[in-house]
Amino acid sequence: VFLRGGADGLNLVAPLADDGYYRARPRIAISKTAGIPLDGFYGLNPLLKALEPAYQDGALAIIHAAGSEDDTRSHFEAQDLMEHGGITGGGWLGRFLRAKNQTGSGPLAAVALGKSIPECLRGSPAATVLQSLDDFSLGSNGSGLTQSLARLYGSQTDALANAGRDTLDAIRRVEQLRSTSYHAAHGANYGRDDFSCGLLQIARLIKARVGLQAASVDLGGWDSHFSQSLIMDPLITQLAQGLSAFYQDLGPAMNQTTVVVMTEFGRRVEENSAFGTDHGRGSVMFVMGGGIKGGRVLGKWPGLSREVLEGPGDLPVTTNYRNVLAPILQRHGAGEQLSQVFPE
Which residues pair with 216 in a beta bridge? Predict the structure, then answer.
Protein backbone atom coordinates (compact mmCIF):
# COMPACT_ATOMS: atom_id res chain seq x y z
CA VAL A 1 0.00 0.00 0.00
CA PHE A 2 1.57 3.28 -1.09
CA LEU A 3 0.41 6.52 0.53
CA ARG A 4 1.31 8.93 -2.26
CA GLY A 5 1.95 12.55 -1.42
CA GLY A 6 4.12 12.25 1.68
CA ALA A 7 1.94 11.16 4.60
CA ASP A 8 2.61 12.88 7.92
CA GLY A 9 3.80 10.09 10.20
CA LEU A 10 3.88 12.41 13.21
CA ASN A 11 0.11 12.82 13.13
CA LEU A 12 -0.62 9.23 12.08
CA VAL A 13 1.33 7.87 15.06
CA ALA A 14 2.04 10.71 17.42
CA PRO A 15 4.95 10.80 19.93
CA LEU A 16 2.65 11.79 22.78
CA ALA A 17 5.45 11.80 25.37
CA ASP A 18 7.82 14.05 23.37
CA ASP A 19 7.35 17.67 24.43
CA GLY A 20 9.10 18.81 21.26
CA TYR A 21 6.11 17.54 19.29
CA TYR A 22 3.75 19.95 21.05
CA ARG A 23 6.18 22.86 20.89
CA ALA A 24 6.44 22.42 17.11
CA ARG A 25 2.71 21.86 16.54
CA PRO A 26 0.67 23.95 18.97
CA ARG A 27 -2.40 23.91 16.69
CA ILE A 28 -2.37 20.64 14.74
CA ALA A 29 -0.81 18.08 17.11
CA ILE A 30 -2.80 15.05 18.28
CA SER A 31 -3.60 15.76 21.91
CA LYS A 32 -2.50 13.39 24.65
CA THR A 33 -6.13 12.76 25.54
CA ALA A 34 -7.25 12.09 21.95
CA GLY A 35 -4.39 9.79 20.93
CA ILE A 36 -5.02 6.07 21.33
CA PRO A 37 -2.27 4.85 23.73
CA LEU A 38 0.08 2.24 22.27
CA ASP A 39 3.07 1.81 24.56
CA GLY A 40 3.25 4.73 26.93
CA PHE A 41 5.11 6.93 24.44
CA TYR A 42 3.26 6.79 21.10
CA GLY A 43 -0.43 7.13 20.34
CA LEU A 44 -2.50 6.33 17.26
CA ASN A 45 -4.44 9.06 15.54
CA PRO A 46 -8.00 8.56 16.86
CA LEU A 47 -9.21 8.08 13.28
CA LEU A 48 -7.03 4.93 13.13
CA LYS A 49 -8.91 3.32 16.01
CA ALA A 50 -10.14 0.53 13.72
CA LEU A 51 -6.54 -0.73 13.59
CA GLU A 52 -6.27 -1.06 17.36
CA PRO A 53 -7.56 -4.69 17.41
CA ALA A 54 -4.86 -5.83 14.96
CA TYR A 55 -2.24 -4.05 17.07
CA GLN A 56 -3.52 -5.70 20.25
CA ASP A 57 -3.60 -9.07 18.48
CA GLY A 58 0.12 -8.67 17.80
CA ALA A 59 -0.53 -8.70 14.04
CA LEU A 60 0.29 -5.02 13.43
CA ALA A 61 3.69 -3.42 13.90
CA ILE A 62 4.56 0.24 13.37
CA ILE A 63 8.01 1.45 12.37
CA HIS A 64 8.60 5.12 13.13
CA ALA A 65 11.21 7.47 11.66
CA ALA A 66 11.27 5.26 8.56
CA GLY A 67 12.03 6.30 5.00
CA SER A 68 14.67 6.28 2.29
CA GLU A 69 18.06 7.85 1.82
CA ASP A 70 16.64 10.33 -0.71
CA ASP A 71 16.82 13.85 0.70
CA THR A 72 15.50 15.81 -2.29
CA ARG A 73 12.05 16.15 -0.69
CA SER A 74 10.67 15.78 -4.22
CA HIS A 75 7.60 13.56 -4.52
CA PHE A 76 8.68 12.20 -7.89
CA GLU A 77 12.31 11.49 -7.07
CA ALA A 78 11.54 10.04 -3.65
CA GLN A 79 8.77 7.79 -5.01
CA ASP A 80 10.95 6.57 -7.87
CA LEU A 81 13.86 5.72 -5.59
CA MET A 82 11.63 3.93 -3.09
CA GLU A 83 9.73 1.94 -5.74
CA HIS A 84 12.90 0.98 -7.59
CA GLY A 85 14.53 -0.10 -4.34
CA GLY A 86 17.59 2.02 -5.00
CA ILE A 87 19.35 3.29 -8.10
CA THR A 88 18.82 0.21 -10.24
CA GLY A 89 16.65 -1.06 -13.07
CA GLY A 90 13.06 -2.15 -12.54
CA GLY A 91 11.04 -2.22 -9.36
CA TRP A 92 11.95 -4.05 -6.16
CA LEU A 93 8.74 -6.08 -6.20
CA GLY A 94 9.20 -6.94 -9.85
CA ARG A 95 12.75 -8.14 -9.21
CA PHE A 96 11.51 -10.20 -6.26
CA LEU A 97 8.89 -11.93 -8.39
CA ARG A 98 11.37 -12.55 -11.20
CA ALA A 99 13.96 -14.04 -8.82
CA LYS A 100 11.33 -16.15 -7.09
CA ASN A 101 9.59 -17.36 -10.26
CA GLN A 102 12.49 -18.34 -12.47
CA THR A 103 10.29 -20.89 -14.25
CA GLY A 104 7.49 -18.40 -14.89
CA SER A 105 4.25 -17.45 -13.19
CA GLY A 106 0.59 -17.01 -14.06
CA PRO A 107 -1.07 -13.81 -15.28
CA LEU A 108 -2.56 -13.08 -11.88
CA ALA A 109 0.68 -13.56 -9.93
CA ALA A 110 1.05 -9.77 -9.64
CA VAL A 111 -1.89 -7.38 -9.68
CA ALA A 112 -1.98 -3.60 -9.49
CA LEU A 113 -5.29 -2.05 -8.51
CA GLY A 114 -5.62 1.11 -10.56
CA LYS A 115 -5.04 2.35 -14.10
CA SER A 116 -1.30 1.75 -14.59
CA ILE A 117 1.52 -0.49 -13.43
CA PRO A 118 3.36 1.10 -10.48
CA GLU A 119 7.12 1.40 -10.69
CA CYS A 120 7.60 -1.19 -7.93
CA LEU A 121 6.23 -3.90 -10.28
CA ARG A 122 8.34 -2.96 -13.30
CA GLY A 123 10.25 -5.98 -14.58
CA SER A 124 7.98 -8.61 -13.03
CA PRO A 125 7.38 -11.77 -15.12
CA ALA A 126 3.71 -10.82 -15.40
CA ALA A 127 1.64 -7.98 -14.00
CA THR A 128 -2.04 -7.29 -14.51
CA VAL A 129 -3.61 -3.87 -14.01
CA LEU A 130 -7.28 -3.75 -13.13
CA GLN A 131 -9.70 -1.59 -11.20
CA SER A 132 -12.08 -4.45 -10.56
CA LEU A 133 -12.47 -8.11 -11.48
CA ASP A 134 -15.01 -6.99 -14.09
CA ASP A 135 -12.08 -5.55 -16.09
CA PHE A 136 -10.41 -8.95 -16.50
CA SER A 137 -12.52 -10.20 -19.38
CA LEU A 138 -12.61 -10.68 -23.15
CA GLY A 139 -15.98 -8.95 -23.30
CA SER A 140 -19.59 -10.03 -23.08
CA ASN A 141 -19.33 -12.15 -26.25
CA GLY A 142 -15.91 -13.64 -25.58
CA SER A 143 -16.86 -17.30 -25.19
CA GLY A 144 -16.31 -18.11 -28.87
CA LEU A 145 -12.94 -16.38 -28.88
CA THR A 146 -11.98 -18.17 -25.67
CA GLN A 147 -12.77 -21.56 -27.17
CA SER A 148 -10.81 -20.78 -30.35
CA LEU A 149 -7.79 -19.60 -28.35
CA ALA A 150 -7.98 -22.70 -26.14
CA ARG A 151 -7.79 -24.94 -29.24
CA LEU A 152 -4.93 -22.90 -30.66
CA TYR A 153 -2.86 -22.90 -27.45
CA GLY A 154 -3.75 -26.52 -26.71
CA SER A 155 -1.88 -27.73 -29.79
CA GLN A 156 1.32 -25.83 -29.00
CA THR A 157 4.04 -26.34 -26.39
CA ASP A 158 6.09 -23.12 -26.49
CA ALA A 159 6.24 -20.32 -23.91
CA LEU A 160 3.57 -18.25 -25.66
CA ALA A 161 1.13 -21.18 -25.57
CA ASN A 162 1.86 -21.76 -21.88
CA ALA A 163 1.18 -18.09 -21.13
CA GLY A 164 -1.99 -18.22 -23.20
CA ARG A 165 -3.31 -21.26 -21.36
CA ASP A 166 -2.51 -19.61 -18.02
CA THR A 167 -4.38 -16.48 -19.07
CA LEU A 168 -7.44 -18.41 -20.23
CA ASP A 169 -7.43 -20.36 -17.00
CA ALA A 170 -7.28 -17.11 -15.04
CA ILE A 171 -10.17 -15.70 -17.08
CA ARG A 172 -12.26 -18.78 -16.29
CA ARG A 173 -11.51 -18.47 -12.60
CA VAL A 174 -12.32 -14.76 -12.54
CA GLU A 175 -15.57 -15.39 -14.44
CA GLN A 176 -16.52 -17.91 -11.78
CA LEU A 177 -15.81 -15.27 -9.13
CA ARG A 178 -17.93 -12.70 -10.93
CA SER A 179 -20.83 -15.13 -11.26
CA THR A 180 -21.25 -15.29 -7.49
CA SER A 181 -21.76 -12.32 -5.20
CA TYR A 182 -18.98 -11.76 -2.70
CA HIS A 183 -19.69 -11.44 1.00
CA ALA A 184 -16.86 -10.39 3.25
CA ALA A 185 -16.26 -12.83 6.10
CA HIS A 186 -16.12 -12.36 9.88
CA GLY A 187 -18.28 -9.24 9.87
CA ALA A 188 -15.81 -7.21 7.80
CA ASN A 189 -17.22 -3.97 6.42
CA TYR A 190 -15.42 -2.44 3.44
CA GLY A 191 -16.05 1.17 2.52
CA ARG A 192 -17.19 2.28 -0.93
CA ASP A 193 -14.10 4.35 -1.68
CA ASP A 194 -11.56 3.19 -4.28
CA PHE A 195 -9.03 2.11 -1.65
CA SER A 196 -11.42 -0.18 0.21
CA CYS A 197 -12.79 -1.53 -3.07
CA GLY A 198 -9.24 -2.32 -4.16
CA LEU A 199 -8.50 -4.23 -0.97
CA LEU A 200 -11.78 -6.12 -1.38
CA GLN A 201 -10.71 -7.22 -4.88
CA ILE A 202 -7.36 -8.40 -3.49
CA ALA A 203 -9.11 -10.38 -0.76
CA ARG A 204 -11.28 -12.09 -3.37
CA LEU A 205 -8.25 -13.04 -5.44
CA ILE A 206 -6.41 -14.41 -2.39
CA LYS A 207 -9.37 -16.54 -1.37
CA ALA A 208 -9.93 -17.77 -4.93
CA ARG A 209 -6.37 -19.15 -5.10
CA VAL A 210 -5.68 -17.85 -8.59
CA GLY A 211 -1.92 -17.75 -7.96
CA LEU A 212 -1.70 -14.20 -6.60
CA GLN A 213 1.71 -13.53 -5.07
CA ALA A 214 1.85 -9.74 -4.85
CA ALA A 215 -0.57 -6.85 -5.15
CA SER A 216 -0.17 -3.09 -5.14
CA VAL A 217 -2.77 -0.46 -4.29
CA ASP A 218 -2.38 3.29 -3.80
CA LEU A 219 -4.05 5.80 -1.53
CA GLY A 220 -3.03 9.22 -2.78
CA GLY A 221 -3.53 12.85 -1.82
CA TRP A 222 -1.43 13.20 1.36
CA ASP A 223 0.36 16.45 0.40
CA SER A 224 -0.88 18.50 3.36
CA HIS A 225 0.66 21.96 2.99
CA PHE A 226 -2.62 23.65 3.89
CA SER A 227 -5.35 22.84 6.42
CA GLN A 228 -3.78 19.48 7.20
CA SER A 229 -6.69 17.95 9.09
CA LEU A 230 -9.12 18.70 6.24
CA ILE A 231 -6.81 16.90 3.81
CA MET A 232 -5.66 14.02 6.00
CA ASP A 233 -8.72 13.09 8.05
CA PRO A 234 -10.77 11.59 5.19
CA LEU A 235 -7.71 9.67 3.98
CA ILE A 236 -6.90 8.37 7.47
CA THR A 237 -10.50 7.17 7.78
CA GLN A 238 -10.25 5.33 4.45
CA LEU A 239 -6.90 3.80 5.41
CA ALA A 240 -8.21 2.55 8.74
CA GLN A 241 -11.48 1.17 7.42
CA GLY A 242 -9.87 -0.52 4.43
CA LEU A 243 -7.05 -2.19 6.36
CA SER A 244 -9.34 -3.20 9.22
CA ALA A 245 -11.88 -4.78 6.87
CA PHE A 246 -9.13 -6.61 4.98
CA TYR A 247 -7.68 -7.94 8.24
CA GLN A 248 -11.09 -9.17 9.42
CA ASP A 249 -12.12 -10.55 6.04
CA LEU A 250 -9.03 -12.71 5.49
CA GLY A 251 -9.15 -14.27 8.93
CA PRO A 252 -6.77 -17.29 9.03
CA ALA A 253 -5.52 -16.48 5.50
CA MET A 254 -3.83 -13.44 7.06
CA ASN A 255 -1.21 -15.85 8.44
CA GLN A 256 0.19 -16.25 4.89
CA THR A 257 -0.32 -12.62 3.91
CA THR A 258 1.75 -9.53 4.70
CA VAL A 259 0.53 -5.97 4.21
CA VAL A 260 3.11 -3.17 4.06
CA VAL A 261 2.05 0.48 4.14
CA MET A 262 4.67 3.02 3.07
CA THR A 263 5.03 6.61 1.86
CA GLU A 264 7.80 8.47 0.07
CA PHE A 265 8.63 10.82 2.96
CA GLY A 266 7.12 12.46 6.02
CA ARG A 267 6.41 16.09 6.81
CA ARG A 268 8.29 18.94 8.49
CA VAL A 269 8.13 18.68 12.27
CA GLU A 270 7.01 22.29 12.73
CA GLU A 271 3.58 23.29 11.48
CA ASN A 272 3.41 26.16 8.98
CA SER A 273 1.27 29.30 9.05
CA ALA A 274 -1.45 27.63 6.95
CA PHE A 275 -2.21 24.93 9.55
CA GLY A 276 -0.26 22.42 7.45
CA THR A 277 3.18 20.89 7.15
CA ASP A 278 5.79 21.03 4.40
CA HIS A 279 7.87 18.23 2.86
CA GLY A 280 10.08 16.43 5.36
CA ARG A 281 12.03 13.18 5.79
CA GLY A 282 11.08 10.45 8.27
CA SER A 283 7.56 9.04 8.42
CA VAL A 284 5.97 5.75 9.52
CA MET A 285 5.51 2.31 7.99
CA PHE A 286 2.81 -0.16 9.00
CA VAL A 287 3.33 -3.91 8.66
CA MET A 288 0.42 -6.28 9.26
CA GLY A 289 -0.08 -10.01 8.92
CA GLY A 290 1.57 -13.36 9.35
CA GLY A 291 4.97 -13.61 10.99
CA ILE A 292 4.77 -10.06 12.34
CA LYS A 293 5.82 -9.63 15.96
CA GLY A 294 3.40 -6.78 16.34
CA GLY A 295 1.81 -4.87 19.15
CA ARG A 296 4.94 -2.69 19.12
CA VAL A 297 6.28 0.55 17.67
CA LEU A 298 9.74 -0.24 16.33
CA GLY A 299 12.65 1.89 15.19
CA LYS A 300 15.04 4.23 16.95
CA TRP A 301 13.28 7.43 18.01
CA PRO A 302 15.77 10.31 17.58
CA GLY A 303 13.77 12.87 19.49
CA LEU A 304 12.52 16.23 18.26
CA SER A 305 15.01 18.64 19.81
CA ARG A 306 16.39 21.12 17.32
CA GLU A 307 19.92 19.72 17.38
CA VAL A 308 18.80 16.31 16.04
CA LEU A 309 16.42 17.51 13.34
CA GLU A 310 17.62 17.23 9.77
CA GLY A 311 17.91 20.05 7.24
CA PRO A 312 15.22 22.70 7.66
CA GLY A 313 13.73 20.87 10.64
CA ASP A 314 12.78 17.32 9.70
CA LEU A 315 12.50 14.04 11.58
CA PRO A 316 15.60 12.03 10.60
CA VAL A 317 15.27 8.61 8.97
CA THR A 318 16.61 6.04 11.43
CA THR A 319 15.23 2.93 9.66
CA ASN A 320 15.67 2.49 5.92
CA TYR A 321 12.53 1.07 4.32
CA ARG A 322 14.53 -1.75 2.69
CA ASN A 323 15.45 -3.06 6.12
CA VAL A 324 11.73 -3.49 6.74
CA LEU A 325 11.02 -5.09 3.37
CA ALA A 326 13.98 -7.49 3.26
CA PRO A 327 12.92 -9.93 6.02
CA ILE A 328 9.35 -9.88 4.70
CA LEU A 329 10.57 -10.91 1.24
CA GLN A 330 12.73 -13.59 2.87
CA ARG A 331 9.65 -14.99 4.54
CA HIS A 332 7.82 -15.04 1.22
CA GLY A 333 10.51 -16.94 -0.62
CA ALA A 334 13.31 -14.55 -1.63
CA GLY A 335 15.93 -16.91 -0.22
CA GLU A 336 19.40 -16.40 -1.64
CA GLN A 337 17.98 -14.10 -4.33
CA LEU A 338 17.58 -11.20 -1.91
CA SER A 339 20.75 -9.59 -3.26
CA GLN A 340 19.07 -9.51 -6.68
CA VAL A 341 16.10 -7.67 -5.23
CA PHE A 342 18.20 -5.11 -3.33
CA PRO A 343 21.63 -5.04 -5.01
CA GLU A 344 22.96 -2.64 -2.38
Answer: 112
